[in-house]
Structure formats: C-alpha cells, structure tokens
Write a structure and sequence with these properties.
The chain is of the alpha/beta class. It has two domains: 202 residues, Spore Coat Polysaccharide Biosynthesis Protein SpsA, Chain A, CATH 3.90.550.10; 99 residues, no CATH class. It is built from twelve helices and ten strands. Strands 1, 2, 3, 4, 5, 6, 7, 8, 9 and 10 form a ten-stranded mixed sheet that branches. A hairpin with a 5-residue loop joins strand 6 and strand 7. Helix 6 packs parallel to helix 7, helix 8 packs across helix 12 and helix 9 crosses helix 12.
Length: 316
C-alpha cells in the first residue's frame, strides 16, 4: 500500500480537484491522508466530506503549524509500505503511482518529472536536464552538481517507508524544507530510480510562496544553511560543501538583495541593508573558501553594495 500525504491550509478552492486526481489513480491500494493545518475557510468541512465518499481517505485536523508540521503529522500516521506527497493545489497523472510502484523493485526512492502551470495558464517542463533518460542511480553515482537538481521537491518522489523512519521535515525553518528533507532521504538511499516522464502538475498561483515577499529571507537562508551543512556532513562528504554553501548562503544573500533592491520593497533604506548582507562575516568567510563565480558573486564578495542594488534595480 502507498500512503499519500496531502497537507492543506485554506485550500478549499483547489483541494477537491487535487484529491480526485489521487482517487482516480490506476493503482488502487492507497491510503490518502489529508492534514488540515488549522484552516480558517471551509477546508475542514471539505476534508471531512471527502472522507465520507471514499474509505481510503483519512483526515487529520490540527492547529496551524505550517507545511512541515502538517507533513510530519501525515508521516507519523502513515501505514503504507511506500510514502508519497502531493500539494493541495496540484494534480497528478492517473498512472503516477502505478508507474512509480512498478519501479520500486530495486530501489529505495523513485523520482519523476513535473509540469509547472503558471498563473497565466502557460506551462513549463520541470525536468532534470542532467539526466537525459530514465535511469537507476546508486548513492556513489550522485555528484554534488546532480544532487542539487535532484533534491528539490518531495512531491515528485515515492519513498520506501523504512527509509523515512528517522527523517522528518525541519520545524522552524520555513525555507527549502523539501530540499533539506531530500538531502537526508537521498543520503540514506542505496539506489534511486529516475523516470524521465512528467507525471505531476504543479500549479503556481499569484500570492503563492513563489511570489511572496519575505522580509526575513536572509535570516531564513542562514538557518537553512546551518542545517544543510549538518546534513551534508552526516550523509554525504566535504566535496558537497561548496555546492550547498553557494546554494543556501550565497544564493540566499543574492535572493535577499534582489528583493531589497526591488522598487516594490517597502523600506527606503535599501543600500544600508544590502551593505549589511554583503559584509556578513559568514558570507565573506565562505568566499575565502570557495572563490566567487560570475559578476553577482564577485560584487558580493567585494561588499559592493551600490553596484548590486543598481544591478538588481535594472533587472527588476
């Protein structure tokens, strides 16, 4: 049996469509766990109504704790031999879990492609370009560069339940939760099967986290970096450190500066805030270990706050 965990917060507009796509799976042995994370709209009633329509649906109601807490509640309740995740906005192809289950005979995880559906209705392929075709990868074959592109999202994965026995989503870190989870899961997996096929449809809405303003983005990035380094040292090795320093610490700094430099940013004191980020001792220490690459990193390493602001103001 496969346990599919669907966390939902104020998702009554899209949830039923999502759940129907899971109920319509050609693989029928499913346990569908809806975790209502303290919704304030009609989501709770909708979850309960859906559960009356199909015995495979279980509902957990809890106080709002965020997506990580909701997924963890689902993990604690799951009874299937395999576990998957679907976000409440999204849908899946009808044979997603049948295809994934058929690929589990010699691996601990299965991973597949997705399609991103943009607010204007246009779509973009979400694939792993570094892997041109379906393949079985051992732990030793996963390079730092490849791991960066494989570990991004849990909703494109099916996991053996025993693989996740001591892994949970990080609480209190509201950034890159999926990646931090998968860094652990992939670090434990002996083999991972990749399916070069789009079977997940990810809806990006206006107002979603992708477009949201985060005033504490730099602080979140540093917390995520700290945990990422602990995970990398435990499950991987030092050769992975440069990739994840650049991704979490340097990438987080540039993302925060991009947000601050935007004309939409509410605080007028942009230059001082950009200068503070650029002068951060941990960031500059990282550049001393891993030399900057490209114009943006070079400016950041030289604490060039004004050129950074100009660069991002022009682009945005």
């Amino acid at each position: 049996m496969i346990s599919i965990i669907i966390p939902v917060y104020n998702g009554e507009q899209h949830l039923e469509r999502c759940v129907r796509s899971v109920l319509n799976q050609t693989y029928r042995k499913l346990e569908i766990i809806l975790v209502n994370d303290g919704s304030t709209d009609g989501t709770a009633d909708l979850c309960d109504r859906l559960a009356t329509q199909d015995s495979r649906i279980r509902v957990i109601h809890q106080e709002n704790g965020g997506v990580s807490a909701a997924r963890n509640a689902g993990l604690d309740a799951a009874t299937g031999r395999f576990i998957g995740f679907v976000d409440a906005d999204d849908t899946i192809s009808e044979d997603t879990y049948e295809s994934a289950f058929q690929a589990t005979s010699n691996c601990d995880m299965v991973m597949w492609d997705a399609v991103t559906v943009l607010p204007d209705g246009n779509t973009q392929p979400d694939t792993i370009d570094q892997l041109p075709e379906s393949c079985l990868l051992s732990y030793k074959e996963i390079t730092p560069h490849l791991l960066r592109y494989m570990a991004g999202a849990v909703w494109r994965c099916l996991y053996r339940a025993e693989l996740l026995q001591d892994i949970r989503f990080p609480l209190g870190i509201k950034l890159s939760e999926d990646r931090l989870f998968n860094l652990q899961a992939m670090g434990k997996a002996e083999n991972i099967q990749y399916l070069k096929r789009a079977m997940y449809y990810r809806l990006v809405r206006e107002g979603s986290a992708v477009f949201s303003y985060h005033p504490d983005l730099w602080e979140k990035s540093q917390k995520a970096y700290d945990l990422a380094m602990k995970i990398v040292s435990h499950y991987w090795n030092r050769t992975f450190e440069p990739t994840y320093t650049k991704l979490f610490l340097v990438g987080g700094a540039l993302a925060a500066i991009r947000q601050i430099a935007s004309p939409a940013y509410p605080d007028k004191d942009r230059l001082q805030q950009i200068r503070a980020i650029a002068a951060n001792p941990r960031l500059q220490e990282a550049f001393s270990r891993f030399p900057p690459q490209g114009l943006q990193e070079t400016l950041l390493s030289k604490k060039a706050a004004l050129p950074l602001r100009i660069l991002y103001s022009i682009k945005h």
